[in-house]
Write a structure and sequence with these properties.
Structural class: mainly beta
Radius of gyration: 19 Å
Strand content: 35-45%
CATH architecture of the largest domain: Sandwich
Largest sheet: 7 strands, antiparallel
Number of domains: 2
Order of helices and strands: HEEHEEEEEEEEE
InterPro entries: Galactose-bd-like_sf
Number of strands: 11
Protein name: F5/8 type C domain-containing protein
Organism: Macrostomum lignano
C-alpha cells in the first residue's frame, strides 16, 4: 500500500503500519515523529509524497553496534544564535579539521550552533573537533535534533576530538552551550543514515 495525503482513511494508515512495522510517518520533509491516535482529530494539510518509515534497529542496539550503512551526512547550511566577531558558523562545517580555526558565538549559556542537513536523516552521532587552547569551554553542552534533546554532555575533563551519540531523526542538529563562555567549535561532522 502507498499512503499519500490525509484524504485516505486513518484505518489504511494503521493497516500499512501494522503490516510494515513502521515507527512513524512524515507529512513535512523534515519531520518524523511518533503520534497517539488522538493527534488526528481535526484538519490536517498534506502534500505528496508521504513516506512510511520502518524500524531499522532499536536505539540501544544502534549505540552499541553501528549499522554498516552509517555515513557522513551532508550539511547544507548552518547558523549561530549570535556570531562573535568574524567567527562565522560555516567555519565549523567547511571540512577543515584544523583545531586552531573555529567558529564562535558570543558568551553565554544557551548560545548555539546549528547545522541544517541536506536531507532528513537518522543522526547516529556527531564528531566534534574542539579548539586546542581553552578546550574546557566545550565541556558542557546539549545536542538537539529538530529541537528535541538527544544528548546532554557534562565533562569533567576537556577533549580534543570526540564522538557524541544522538540516535534521533531530523534535519536540524544543534549544539547548545551550557557554560557562560563563548561556544567555540572547530569542526562538526554528523554521521547517520
Amino acid at each position: 500500500h502507498e499512503v499519500c495525503g490525509w484524504q485516505k482513511h486513518l484505518g489504511l494508515l494503521g493497516e500499512v503500519c501494522s503490516n510494515t512495522g513502521c515507527i512513524g510517518f512524515s507529512w513535512l520533509q523534515s519531520l518524523c515523529q511518533l503520534f497517539d491516535l488522538s493527534a488526528f482529530a481535526g484538519t490536517w494539510l498534506s502534500s505528496p509524497p508521504c513516506e512510511v518509515f520502518k524500524l531499522i534497529e532499536e536505539p540501544a542496539a544502534a549505540a552499541s553496534s553501528s549499522p554498516a550503512n552509517i555515513k557522513k551526512l551532508n550539511i547544507s547550511s548552518c547558523q549561530h544564535s549570535n556570531t562573535y566577531a568574524s567567527y562565522y558558523c560555516t567555519i565549523s562545517m567547511d571540512g577543515n579539521r584544523d583545531q586552531t580555526v573555529y567558529s564562535a558565538t558570543v558568551q553565554g549559556i544557551g548560545e548555539w550552533w546549528e547545522a541544517r542537513l541536506a536531507a532528513p536523516a537518522f543522526v547516529a552521532y556527531l564528531t566534534i573537533y574542539n579548539r586546542l587552547t581553552l578546550s574546557d569551554w566545550l565541556n558542557k553542552f546539549n545536542l538537539l535534533v529538530d529541537g528535541v534533546e538527544c544528548n546532554r554532555v557534562d565533562l569533567t575533563e576537556s577533549f580534543s576530538i570526540a564522538n557524541f551519540t544522538c540516535n534521533a531523526f531530523g534535519s536540524a542538529v544543534r549544539v547548545v552551550n551550557q557554560l557562560s563562555n563563548h561556544l567555540v567549535i572547530c569542526e562538526v561532522e554528523i554521521y547517520g543514515y
